[in-house]
Amino acid sequence: MFITIIGIKLVMDFVPNHSSDEHPWFQLSVNRVEPYTDYYVWKDAKGFDENGQPIVPNNWISVFGGSAWEWREERQQFYLHQFVVEQPDLNYENPKVMIQMLAAVKFWLDMGVDGLRVDAVPHMFEDPELRDQLEDPNRPPESRPDEWRYWLHTMTYNLPKTLDAMAEFRKLIDIYSALDGRERCMMVEVTMLKLDELFEYYGSEKRPIAHFPFNFEFINRIKKDFNADQILDLVDEWFTKMPEGKTANWLVGNHDNHRVAARFGDYVIDPFNMIIHLLPGSSVTYYGEEIGMQDTWISWEDTVDPAGCNAGPERYELFSRDPERTPMQWDDTKNSGFSTANKTWLPINENYPNLNAKAQRGVNETHLEIYKKISQLRKTNTWKYGSLETKALYSGKVFAFSRIFNANGFIVLANFGGEELVIDAYRQLDGIPLYATVYSRSSGFVPETIFVGDIVETKRITIGGRHSLILEF
Q: Is the pTM of the predicted complex or chain greater than 0.85?
């Protein structure tokens, strides 16, 4: 592949839970053509109502709202769709389905992909007895019985066989790597309330599963009025509980949640990028975070996300993920350089003439240039092999950490408070020399007396409210 020639690795998004209802397998399954009859989750009606309409097998709800069951007249049965109607769930209780899916993974490995991001993993298996879900006692008070968030999902989410299936995926990937010596990876998209359950997806030394399950802790636990103590707890808990020898990973945004700037404000863009890229582990950037893209307001008429569409015009904004999914803002030309079409899938944010990659490229201390400079530190031995010390300082206003290797290192200081602080990193962190050099600072940094390249005394580092700094030594 051309991208391999130029040194780019390709990790493919792979969704094993379901197929399209237009897929040949499903069309054959609807008509009970072997061996596809049981490739999907089909169930008889529970009965028929007074109008002769089939009654769904149980109370399972789609992630996007409404029943997870859809009737097909040709087959006289319901099929399961945990997502949209057009995405029928595959039946992994049928071993033929697993064989076919491994063949699909093999196809893409043969095509040269460097790994998989496996999506919607916990939905792959269901309770074979079709028992009803229980109401979630901690559900939001405004939630309704036809909404996903109303219920616990113990009958359809993270069943034990899921780990077995993922271990088979990993085994196949490792066989390819063993044969040609090429490094490949498998990352899985799993959301769990407890880290102990999430970490099961790392597997073990004898039975590895994912190289890492995505770390959504910054999304799930860090809310608008956060402080540094909460970040410290999150980071320390991950490293304390993560199985030995495994790789951490860090992210602050994704396609299912409002953008970082919308959740907290523009001021967190640089410090959050500093944190997720410079802690040990893999870092994952949702497109646009490198330039500080913001949510885009989407009208009901322009809404395309099923979660929003199914909620209706009065409530769509509570559920739609379209605001964080608008096109990448490349430049100030038509459609922000994303497309030459007359209309894009989603509208482009009106701020694109000023907020775009081209406007920030090569301009000192824009979000993009800060991001690029942060990324350079990941190539150093300090980042690769250095120690880690984390602290929350000044009553939770400052999150600080150091990375040191062979007496060389760097310090990250993020002041999330609203006031200027004078920070004594020399005494608060171990192994810090009396003087260090300013490597990078947040966009619009204050005070204006501290510049990149300056040598500062680490006993007295002045950082303005809601600003951040990286020092190296």
A: yes
